[in-house]
Write a structure and sequence with these properties.
Elements (H helix, E strand, L loop, with lengths): L6 H13 L14 H11 L11 E7 L2 H15 L5 H9 L6 E7 L5 H25 L1 E6 L7 H7 L6 E10 L20
Antiparallel strand pairs: 1-2, 2-4, 3-4
Helix pairs in contact: 2-5, 3-4, 3-6
The structure holds flavin mononucleotide.
C-alpha cells in the first residue's frame, strides 16, 4: 500500500505517466517473457470497473502466433468485403513488428449502460497496462483493431461471443526513450460554491 504522503512514489508515478509514449521502437529480437505479459495484464485488472463485471479479456501473441493473428484479421476484413490488396497484406504482416502483441477485449453486458461502462473500464485497464509497461522499460503502442468483432480474431483469441476488441497493443523492449510531446495547457474549472 502506497502511503498517500509519499512524495517519492507520487513523483515516480508522475514520471511514468509523463514518459509513456506511443512507440514501437524496440529490440525486435528480444522476447518479452510470458511472466512480464502476465504481470502487465494483472495490473490492468486493478482499473475501476462498475458492478464488478471484470470485463477485460486478454490474448497474448508472440513468435508465429503473431502471423496467425494477422491472418485472422485478414480473413475478417475479407469477409467484411475488403478487396484492398495492399491493406490486406499489411494487416496480415504488421503484428510481426514487435516481439509481443496483446489483444484486449471487452465483455458485453445485457444492460446498455453497463455495456458502455465495460468499455470505459477496459480502456482504463489498458492505460494501467501501458504505464506498467513503461515502468518495465517496454515500448508500447495502442492500436485499433481492423475490426472490433471479427469472428476469426475472436475465435483465435478464445474470447466468448459478443466480446469487442478494444485495443491491440504492441510491446517490445524500448531501444530509446521517445521525446515527450507538448500537451496543450489544461484548463480546469473549479466550482466551489
Ligand atoms: C483508443 C485509441 C486507439 C488508438 N488507435 C491507434 C491506431 O489505430 N493507430 C495508431 O497509430 N495509433 C493509435 N492510437 C495511439 C494514438 O495515436 C497516440 O496515443 C497519439 O498519437 C498520442 O501519442 P502519445 O500516446 O505518444 O502521447 C490509439 C490511441 C487510443 C487511445
Amino acid at each position: 500500500m502506497v502511503n498517500p504522503r509519499d512524495d517519492l512514489a507520487s513523483t515516480a508515478m508522475a514520471d511514468v505517466i509523463r514518459s509513456r509514449r506511443t512507440s514501437m521502437v524496440c529490440d525486435r529480437e528480444r522476447e518479452v517473457p510470458a511472466e512480464v505479459i502476465d504481470r502487465l495484464c494483472e495490473l490492468a485488472t486493478w482499473a475501476p470497473n462498475h458492478k464488478r463485471t471484470w470485463p477485460w479479456r486478454f490474448a497474448a501473441f508472440s513468435g508465429e502466433g503473431r502471423m496467425r493473428l494477422g491472418e485472422a484479421c485478414r480473413l475478417d476484413l475479407t469477409e467484411a468485403g475488403s478487396t484492398d490488396e495492399g491493406k490486406l497484406t499489411k494487416v496480415a504482416t504488421k503484428y510481426g513488428r514487435t516481439p509481443s502483441v496483446l489483444v484486449i477485449g471487452c465483455a458485453p453486458d445485457d444492460h446498455p449502460t453497463f455495456h458502455d461502462e465495460n468499455r470505459d473500464a477496459v480502456a482504463a485497464g489498458i492505460q494501467n497496462l501501458l504505464l506498467a509497461a513503461t515502468a518495465e522499460g517496454l515500448a508500447s503502442y495502442w492500436s485499433t483493431a481492423p475490426l472490433l468483432e471479427g469472428r476469426h480474431t475472436l475465435e483465435l483469441c478464445g474470447f466468448e461471443a459478443g466480446v469487442r476488441v478494444i485495443g491491440i497493443v504492441y510491446l517490445g523492449w524500448a531501444e530509446s526513450a521517445p521525446a515527450p510531446v507538448e500537451r496543450p495547457p489544461v484548463e480546469v474549472r473549479h466550482i466551489t460554491r
